[in-house]
Protein backbone atom coordinates (compact mmCIF):
# COMPACT_ATOMS: atom_id res chain seq x y z
CA UNK A 1 0.00 0.00 0.00
CA UNK A 2 2.96 2.33 0.47
CA UNK A 3 6.60 2.67 -0.52
CA UNK A 4 9.42 4.87 0.73
CA UNK A 5 11.50 6.32 -2.11
CA UNK A 6 15.25 6.90 -1.92
CA UNK A 7 14.65 10.61 -1.39
CA UNK A 8 12.62 9.83 1.75
CA UNK A 9 9.20 10.56 0.24
CA UNK A 10 6.40 8.21 1.25
CA UNK A 11 4.16 7.06 -1.60
CA UNK A 12 0.78 5.55 -0.81
CA UNK A 13 -1.77 4.11 -3.25
CA UNK A 14 -5.43 3.41 -2.51
CA UNK A 15 -8.74 2.67 -4.15
CA UNK A 16 -10.80 5.47 -2.63
CA UNK A 17 -14.56 6.13 -2.87
CA UNK A 18 -13.67 8.49 -5.74
CA UNK A 19 -11.39 6.07 -7.59
CA UNK A 20 -7.71 5.10 -7.62
CA UNK A 21 -5.30 7.58 -6.13
CA UNK A 22 -1.62 8.02 -5.38
CA UNK A 23 -0.34 10.17 -2.53
CA UNK A 24 3.21 11.49 -2.04
CA UNK A 25 4.08 12.82 1.41
CA UNK A 26 7.26 14.58 2.52
CA UNK A 27 8.17 16.82 5.43
CA UNK A 28 7.48 19.76 3.15
CA UNK A 29 3.97 18.81 2.09
CA UNK A 30 1.88 16.41 0.05
CA UNK A 31 0.67 15.95 -3.51
CA UNK A 32 -1.71 13.45 -5.04
CA UNK A 33 -2.70 12.12 -8.45
CA UNK A 34 -5.58 10.21 -9.99
CA UNK A 35 -9.37 10.34 -9.53
CA UNK A 36 -8.95 9.60 -5.82
CA UNK A 37 -6.14 12.08 -5.27
CA UNK A 38 -8.25 14.86 -3.79
CA UNK A 39 -9.94 12.39 -1.44
CA UNK A 40 -6.53 11.22 -0.22
CA UNK A 41 -5.42 14.79 0.44
CA UNK A 42 -8.60 15.50 2.42
CA UNK A 43 -8.04 12.31 4.40
CA UNK A 44 -4.35 12.99 5.07
CA UNK A 45 -4.74 14.69 8.49
CA UNK A 46 -6.57 11.71 10.02
CA UNK A 47 -4.23 9.31 8.21
CA UNK A 48 -1.43 11.01 10.15
CA UNK A 49 -3.32 10.74 13.44
CA UNK A 50 -5.06 14.11 13.76
CA UNK A 51 -8.25 12.52 15.14
CA UNK A 52 -6.38 10.31 17.61
CA UNK A 53 -6.61 11.15 21.33
CA UNK A 54 -3.44 9.81 22.98
CA UNK A 55 -4.02 12.01 26.03
CA UNK A 56 -6.89 9.68 27.01
CA UNK A 57 -4.38 6.91 27.69
CA UNK A 58 -3.28 6.15 31.26
CA UNK A 59 -0.35 3.78 31.83
CA UNK A 60 -0.86 1.18 34.57
CA UNK A 61 2.51 -0.57 34.31
CA UNK A 62 5.99 0.90 34.60
CA UNK A 63 7.16 -0.68 31.34
CA UNK A 64 4.19 0.85 29.50
CA UNK A 65 4.79 4.26 31.06
CA UNK A 66 8.44 4.10 29.99
CA UNK A 67 7.48 3.18 26.43
CA UNK A 68 5.04 6.05 26.27
CA UNK A 69 7.71 8.45 27.52
CA UNK A 70 10.17 7.21 24.89
CA UNK A 71 7.62 7.35 22.07
CA UNK A 72 5.48 10.45 22.61
CA UNK A 73 4.96 10.67 18.85
CA UNK A 74 2.86 7.48 18.65
CA UNK A 75 -0.47 8.10 16.96
CA UNK A 76 -3.11 5.63 15.82
CA UNK A 77 -3.72 6.40 12.17
CA UNK A 78 -7.04 6.11 10.39
CA UNK A 79 -7.26 5.28 6.68
CA UNK A 80 -11.05 5.52 6.42
CA UNK A 81 -10.97 2.53 4.05
CA UNK A 82 -12.11 -0.89 5.23
CA UNK A 83 -11.64 -3.30 2.34
CA UNK A 84 -7.99 -2.40 1.72
CA UNK A 85 -7.16 -3.52 5.28
CA UNK A 86 -9.71 -6.32 5.52
CA UNK A 87 -8.55 -8.33 2.52
CA UNK A 88 -4.85 -8.46 3.56
CA UNK A 89 -6.01 -9.46 7.05
CA UNK A 90 -8.08 -12.31 5.63
CA UNK A 91 -5.11 -13.44 3.54
CA UNK A 92 -2.99 -13.51 6.71
CA UNK A 93 -5.33 -15.88 8.57
CA UNK A 94 -3.37 -18.93 9.78
CA UNK A 95 -0.28 -18.16 7.65
CA UNK A 96 2.87 -16.09 8.06
CA UNK A 97 3.02 -12.42 7.16
CA UNK A 98 5.51 -13.27 4.41
CA UNK A 99 3.14 -15.80 2.84
CA UNK A 100 0.22 -13.38 3.02
CA UNK A 101 2.25 -10.59 1.42
CA UNK A 102 3.25 -12.84 -1.48
CA UNK A 103 -0.40 -13.74 -2.06
CA UNK A 104 -1.49 -10.11 -1.88
CA UNK A 105 1.23 -8.97 -4.29
CA UNK A 106 0.37 -11.71 -6.80
CA UNK A 107 -3.34 -10.90 -6.78
CA UNK A 108 -3.00 -7.12 -6.85
CA UNK A 109 -0.48 -7.13 -9.69
CA UNK A 110 -2.56 -9.56 -11.76
CA UNK A 111 -6.06 -8.22 -11.12
CA UNK A 112 -5.45 -4.65 -9.97
CA UNK A 113 -4.22 -1.74 -12.07
CA UNK A 114 -1.16 0.45 -12.29
CA UNK A 115 -1.42 3.37 -9.89
CA UNK A 116 -1.75 6.90 -11.29
CA UNK A 117 1.64 8.60 -11.12
CA UNK A 118 2.97 12.03 -12.07
CA UNK A 119 4.24 12.54 -15.60
CA UNK A 120 6.70 15.24 -14.51
CA UNK A 121 10.34 14.08 -14.31
CA UNK A 122 10.79 15.92 -11.00
CA UNK A 123 9.59 12.97 -8.92
CA UNK A 124 11.38 9.75 -8.11
CA UNK A 125 8.45 7.35 -8.44
CA UNK A 126 8.97 3.89 -6.87
CA UNK A 127 8.49 0.97 -9.23
CA UNK A 128 5.61 -1.45 -8.93
CA UNK A 129 2.85 0.81 -7.60
CA UNK A 130 -0.46 -0.98 -8.12
CA UNK A 131 -4.00 -0.27 -6.92
CA UNK A 132 -5.96 -3.26 -5.66
CA UNK A 133 -9.00 -4.50 -7.64
CA UNK A 134 -12.41 -2.98 -7.01
CA UNK A 135 -14.97 -5.17 -5.17
CA UNK A 136 -16.33 -6.60 -8.42
CA UNK A 137 -12.79 -7.49 -9.47
CA UNK A 138 -12.13 -9.38 -6.23
CA UNK A 139 -15.40 -11.28 -6.56
CA UNK A 140 -14.57 -12.37 -10.12
CA UNK A 141 -11.14 -13.90 -9.46
CA UNK A 142 -11.31 -17.55 -10.62
CA UNK A 143 -10.71 -20.35 -8.14
CA UNK A 144 -7.50 -21.49 -9.83
CA UNK A 145 -5.99 -18.02 -9.51
CA UNK A 146 -6.50 -18.13 -5.75
CA UNK A 147 -4.70 -21.48 -5.80
CA UNK A 148 -1.81 -20.01 -7.79
CA UNK A 149 -1.64 -17.18 -5.24
CA UNK A 150 -1.28 -19.79 -2.46
CA UNK A 151 -4.67 -18.89 -0.96
CA UNK A 152 -6.84 -21.78 0.22
CA UNK A 153 -10.55 -21.98 -0.55
CA UNK A 154 -11.65 -20.87 2.92
CA UNK A 155 -9.78 -17.56 2.75
CA UNK A 156 -10.69 -17.03 -0.89
CA UNK A 157 -14.38 -17.55 -0.16
CA UNK A 158 -14.18 -15.06 2.72
CA UNK A 159 -12.65 -12.39 0.47
CA UNK A 160 -15.35 -12.97 -2.16
CA UNK A 161 -18.14 -12.76 0.44
CA UNK A 162 -16.67 -9.51 1.78
CA UNK A 163 -16.31 -8.04 -1.70
CA UNK A 164 -19.97 -8.73 -2.45
CA UNK A 165 -21.07 -6.63 0.53
CA UNK A 166 -18.27 -4.06 0.26
CA UNK A 167 -20.51 -0.95 0.51
CA UNK A 168 -21.92 -2.20 3.83
CA UNK A 169 -18.46 -2.97 5.14
CA UNK A 170 -17.07 0.42 4.12
CA UNK A 171 -19.77 2.03 6.27
CA UNK A 172 -17.94 0.58 9.28
CA UNK A 173 -15.20 3.20 8.86
CA UNK A 174 -17.54 5.81 10.38
CA UNK A 175 -18.95 3.59 13.14
CA UNK A 176 -17.92 3.11 16.75
CA UNK A 177 -15.56 0.22 17.35
CA UNK A 178 -18.24 -2.11 18.70
CA UNK A 179 -20.63 -1.29 15.85
CA UNK A 180 -17.91 -1.75 13.25
CA UNK A 181 -16.78 -5.01 14.83
CA UNK A 182 -20.31 -6.43 14.63
CA UNK A 183 -20.68 -5.29 11.02
CA UNK A 184 -17.46 -7.00 9.90
CA UNK A 185 -17.98 -10.19 11.89
CA UNK A 186 -21.42 -10.66 10.34
CA UNK A 187 -19.54 -11.94 7.27
CA UNK A 188 -18.76 -15.68 7.61
CA UNK A 189 -15.01 -16.19 7.86
CA UNK A 190 -14.35 -12.86 9.59
CA UNK A 191 -13.73 -13.32 13.30
CA UNK A 192 -12.30 -11.24 16.15
CA UNK A 193 -8.68 -11.49 14.93
CA UNK A 194 -9.50 -10.28 11.43
CA UNK A 195 -11.88 -7.53 12.52
CA UNK A 196 -9.36 -6.17 15.02
CA UNK A 197 -6.51 -6.17 12.49
CA UNK A 198 -8.76 -4.31 10.07
CA UNK A 199 -10.24 -1.73 12.42
CA UNK A 200 -6.87 -0.85 13.89
CA UNK A 201 -6.06 0.60 10.48
CA UNK A 202 -9.35 1.69 8.94
CA UNK A 203 -10.75 3.28 12.11
CA UNK A 204 -7.67 3.88 14.25
CA UNK A 205 -9.61 2.06 16.99
CA UNK A 206 -7.66 2.29 20.28
CA UNK A 207 -9.44 -0.71 21.84
CA UNK A 208 -9.11 -3.06 18.83
CA UNK A 209 -6.90 -5.58 20.59
CA UNK A 210 -5.84 -8.52 18.43
CA UNK A 211 -7.10 -11.72 20.06
CA UNK A 212 -6.12 -15.07 18.56
CA UNK A 213 -2.65 -13.98 17.49
CA UNK A 214 0.17 -16.51 17.67
CA UNK A 215 2.71 -14.17 19.27
CA UNK A 216 0.99 -11.18 20.92
CA UNK A 217 -0.21 -12.86 24.16
CA UNK A 218 3.28 -14.19 24.84
CA UNK A 219 4.86 -10.79 24.24
CA UNK A 220 2.35 -8.96 26.45
CA UNK A 221 2.65 -11.55 29.21
CA UNK A 222 6.44 -11.53 29.15
CA UNK A 223 6.70 -7.73 29.07
CA UNK A 224 4.28 -7.21 31.97
CA UNK A 225 5.12 -10.21 34.18
CA UNK A 226 8.45 -11.61 33.00
CA UNK A 227 6.81 -15.01 32.52
CA UNK A 228 6.50 -16.98 29.30
CA UNK A 229 3.53 -18.85 27.87
CA UNK A 230 0.74 -16.30 28.35
CA UNK A 231 -2.57 -17.15 26.67
CA UNK A 232 -5.25 -14.90 25.20
CA UNK A 233 -7.11 -15.13 28.51
CA UNK A 234 -3.97 -14.05 30.38
CA UNK A 235 -3.46 -11.14 28.00
CA UNK A 236 -7.05 -9.97 28.37
CA UNK A 237 -6.71 -10.07 32.15
CA UNK A 238 -3.41 -8.17 32.11
CA UNK A 239 -4.80 -5.50 29.78
CA UNK A 240 -8.16 -5.17 31.56
CA UNK A 241 -7.05 -1.88 33.23
CA UNK A 242 -6.65 -0.44 29.73
CA UNK A 243 -10.27 -1.03 28.69
CA UNK A 244 -11.02 1.29 25.79
CA UNK A 245 -7.29 1.62 25.04
CA UNK A 246 -6.08 -1.99 24.83
CA UNK A 247 -4.73 -1.76 21.30
CA UNK A 248 -2.76 1.36 22.19
CA UNK A 249 -1.38 -0.39 25.27
CA UNK A 250 -0.30 -3.34 23.11
CA UNK A 251 1.40 -0.96 20.67
CA UNK A 252 3.43 0.57 23.49
CA UNK A 253 4.36 -2.90 24.72
CA UNK A 254 5.53 -3.92 21.25
CA UNK A 255 7.67 -0.78 21.10
CA UNK A 256 9.60 -1.95 24.19
CA UNK A 257 11.14 -4.76 22.15
CA UNK A 258 10.64 -7.17 25.05
CA UNK A 259 9.94 -10.66 23.71
CA UNK A 260 10.15 -14.11 25.31
CA UNK A 261 13.14 -16.25 24.26
CA UNK A 262 12.42 -18.45 21.25
CA UNK A 263 13.03 -22.17 21.21
CA UNK A 264 13.03 -24.56 18.27
CA UNK A 265 13.28 -24.01 14.51
CA UNK A 266 10.93 -21.72 12.64
CA UNK A 267 8.46 -23.21 10.18
CA UNK A 268 9.28 -22.68 6.53
CA UNK A 269 6.37 -21.22 4.53
CA UNK A 270 4.45 -23.79 2.48
CA UNK A 271 3.15 -23.49 -1.08
CA UNK A 272 -0.26 -24.99 -1.75
CA UNK A 273 0.11 -23.91 -5.39
CA UNK A 274 2.63 -26.74 -5.80
CA UNK A 275 0.03 -29.36 -4.89
Automatic annotation (TrEMBL):
Source organism of the structure: Streptomyces finlayi
Name the UniProt record assigns to this protein: 3-methyladenine DNA glycosylase
Gene Ontology MF term list: alkylated DNA binding; DNA-3-methyladenine glycosylase activity; DNA-7-methylguanine glycosylase activity
Swiss-Prot/TrEMBL GO biological process terms: base-excision repair, AP site formation; DNA alkylation repair
SUPFAM superfamilies: DNA-glycosylase (SSF48150)
GO cellular component terms listed in the entry, alphabetical order: cytoplasm; protein-DNA complex
Record carries keyword DNA repair: yes
Span of the signal peptide: none
Amino acid sequence: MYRVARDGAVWRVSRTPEGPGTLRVTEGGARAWGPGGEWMLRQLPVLLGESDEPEAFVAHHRVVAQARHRHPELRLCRTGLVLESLIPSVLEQKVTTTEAYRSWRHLVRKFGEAAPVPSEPDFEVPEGLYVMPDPRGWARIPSWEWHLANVDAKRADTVVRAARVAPRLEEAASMTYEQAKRRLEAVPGIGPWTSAETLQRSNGAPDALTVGDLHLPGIVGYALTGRRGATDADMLELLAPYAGQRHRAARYILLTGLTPPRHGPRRAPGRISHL
